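Hi R.,

Here are the chain sequences for the assembly we discussed:
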Amino acid sequence: LIRVRFADTDQMGVAHHASYLTYFEAGRVEYLRRRDLSYVEWLGIPVRLPIVELSMRFHRPARFDQQLVVTTWVDKLTQYSIRFAYRVSEVGANEKTYIVKGHTRQALTDAAGELREIPEAIAERLAGPELSSRPENLV
Amino acid sequence: LIRVRFADTDQMGVAHHASYLTYFEAGRVEYLRRRDLSYVEWLGIPVRLPIVELSMRFHRPARFDQQLVVTTWVDKLTQYSIRFAYRVSEVGANEKTYIVKGHTRQALTDAAGELREIPEAIAERLAGPELSSRPENLV
Amino acid sequence: LIRVRFADTDQMGVAHHASYLTYFEAGRVEYLRRRDLSYVEWLGIPVRLPIVELSMRFHRPARFDQQLVVTTWVDKLTQYSIRFAYRVSEVGANEKTYIVKGHTRQALTDAAGELREIPEAIAERLAGPELSSRPENLV
Amino acid sequence: LIRVRFADTDQMGVAHHASYLTYFEAGRVEYLRRRDLSYVEWLGIPVRLPIVELSMRFHRPARFDQQLVVTTWVDKLTQYSIRFAYRVSEVGANEKTYIVKGHTRQALTDAAGELREIPEAIAERLAGPELSSRPENLV
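And here is the predicted structure of the full complex:
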């Protein structure tokens, strides 16, 4: 759950489009956490997940103080990259009336920025179900 | 409860100092909500609370993904302005080992930006206890 | 010309990907200004240009204090929307070694958010050459 | 020279107060650059300048696309810290009609975060006049 902060709005009175990238990021970090994968370290090895490409579609505006849900999933997994998909909707809204949809493709690199293959054990966990059941309803 | 987002960090590896102003803002909005005062409307009248002055003291850095608590209170109330005080600490940390402390002084204006006196009924509610008891542990 | 601000970096030591959306925006505003079209008003009529979709490709990282050039052009113009394309490169770099490429598609609406047709006179100017010759090398 | 970006505005139609901290930062980085001191390295030694405290006073709002000048100077220099002062005004405006004034106090630390004494040679340069005369009118 995310609340649109006042600082996220612009003078059109809605959440600025760049804000959604931080909401996507929060969703991605949470997705990994629930699979016991930290955003900066995987099984003791420092990793980086630089964004290689992204796209977004804006369907309706979000407003100040609105409560949003970011739904995140892995929709494609290759040897070197992970494609995350996101849907941002208002809390309690019908699933079809979303606000923003998008995806980001992330490469896997080591701390020095060198491209790395995604280990099979990690790939399975990435595409798998949530491991942590604790409710994590904050960002 | 707030989680430090990756976008909030800078290349020193800590939350950028400007991020705390959005944490303060989240604390302030929540403080008002718990007293049934919306951030943009008070009892049906549109209000604005532009910041007139602010100050912050940084005691220790916050890191990516750290969970923070923002404690907010009104520490001074005059005819035309409200001074909010804030303390940001790590969840579960000793109250004295805070990360950032600060205050903001807000003027009350109408939608056109004209200075307005704070109505007494509002002043009482501003300085008073929480009215909403629902747990609001997200931002 | 844009300089990567310290606040734009993240703990990977590079400009955070969301920063580029503000660089794109600066490029877009400048593109319109050079055609004597303001970002919020066209020939006396208030307009809005909400983003309908966007995409970005990241080729290499930008670092703190690096000087960037944002090249902006209109690559598609329909009855109701404008597609802007952007290329962000380092100042003085070979055109092919860009940092980020992307596009945004903007709808034209009035102040109330209602979709509007792009007037022909505006469409011509949008796709046309720069009118202002004053160097505007700042953002 | 800084232009207020659209992303810097909030739904009150003015530059959000947190934006000024990034303008201050741009002014500070520029101040050091003009004295041949980089923001992240001083004479070959990596340094950090974490903010220890800051304060701001807001006198009038800045609006989208407004051109601002950030005037920066060192107003106090101690053994371990530097206090920068800032004044943000509209380009061409009378010096007294500023928008925001403020200061930040920065500690000097090494890359590991350990407090360091400011070397005398640096202190002199910090408090001294500009060395680079090239016009640096962008941020």
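The helical segments of chain C are 19-33, 120-127. The CA atoms of residues 40 and 137 of chain C lie 21 Å apart.

Let me know if anything looks off.

Best,
T.
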